[in-house]
Amino acid sequence: MSQSHDERRRGFEREALPHLDAVYRVALRLSGDPAQAEDLAQETMLKAFRSWHQYQQGTNARAWLLTILRHTFINAYRQKKNRPASVDLSEIEEFTVFHDVQDTDPEGTFFDQIIDDEVLRAIDSLPDEFRETVVLSDVESLSYAEIAEVTGVPVGTVKSRLYRGRQILQRQLYEYAVEMGYLRRSAT
Amino acid sequence: MNDQPTPVNCQEAADRLYEYLDGELTPEIELAVRAHIAKCAPCFKRFDFEETFLRFLAARIRSQGAPPELKRRILESLFSDSDLPERE
Known about the structure:
The complex is a heterodimer of chains A (188) and B (88).
Chain A: H1 5-15, H2 20-31, H3 34-50, H4 61-77, H5 89-92, H6 97-101, H7 116-124, H8 128-139, H9 144-151, H10 155-179
Helix pairs in contact in A: 2-3, 2-4, 2-8, 3-4, 4-9, 7-10, 8-10, 9-10
Chain B: H1 10-15, H2 17-21, H3 27-39, H4 41-61, H5 68-81
Helix pairs in contact in B: 3-4
């Protein structure tokens, strides 16, 4: 039984379109470029509309759309822009930022002084697999199971990526805060 | 009756740090971690710091939405797309 075009469009507008903001936000953080994010979001929504008959009514439309977005990004965009891993991952595990600030600012008040643009810049500089995991969790509040579904990895991998991604991010923001003089580097 | 959770030590609590803050633990383990940080000052401070960090992140990056112009363009493309034959 095929739906009429009108029915299909109404269903799509009701269930998928409300997630456009989420699709755009994730597209922006994946691509790091507003114009590319718009193209990516539009392409995602159009693809989703064309395969709307494959969507199971009542299931998680947001996770379904974000999965399409991720595939679109990987196929069409990721190759064009190879972001270098700007962080030495081996250093991360050794000391947490909390270890550095536990004597000087254990409550993390220095975070409040960091401007939004710097936060976004730090997220954008994360290596791909950490960035997408952090964005899906901290920008879109997806559960670990949903992130596993969207990124196609086991929940255990989501956990470790989230841990390392957040720690890298924290380290970048800490270094920025020290550089800006919001905080003095601890002697330990 | 004993409904005390099995105790966890500092390392076990730290291993579940983000799962705890993200609400991803089973109720029993969540209870055990909560009991640990309630009586362990160093762990309490670490958890509190990480919670502050996550709240800070969420507040700074969640606000952005799609530009209205993009919404309009997408709606338009859906309307014109419905004229295209999709089956057969």
